[in-house]
């Protein structure tokens, strides 16, 4: 059996199914060319730096993926996109535009440990059409550094989603907020996250209860022994008096 037949047999046996997608988009001010696999962003082209950016996580094996290095096809495809955009804009009778507002959530990437570097993730999903604007603040002060933003990712329902990430070193009492602007929103949408030390959990309460219980047992045993000793001494004294 040759390698091709073996791979077909292996894939058929395990019912392996993957779905790749190539997204080319543009507007009057923006361009996007992104490749993905099974709904996850693999890499995209950064038009400001004229290079491809690998978007897979650090723990993934990037050697397994072969990324195109030629930038010209990407430039050409987005040029075609802009030509079609201009054509439709000039000749299409505008109807009421469908818009879907975003849903936003904010959460830490890892378990929070005070003074240990972490990443806050602002997930914006369910919006149409792009773009959205995402901004961060710390203790009500605007933050502009240590921020990364994913490309727009299409969802199966025709809407889009993206991630904005902020590297932080959490300290107790600090508050961070992620604010999203989109044309479907009447006002900006803001989600707030506060750095809080882990509270006393059930295990701690159980430990305290057990300690108090043991203390009560020891104390009770002490007084019982003391009372028994005192009674024995009194009985002995009474016997001595009776003898006298």
Automatic annotation (TrEMBL):
GO terms for cellular component: MHC class II protein complex. Residues 102-182 form the Ig-like domain. Its main location: membrane. It is a single-pass type I membrane protein. Pfam families: C1-set, MHC_II_alpha. The chain crosses the membrane at residues 200-225. This is Ig-like domain-containing protein. It comes from Sinocyclocheilus rhinocerous.
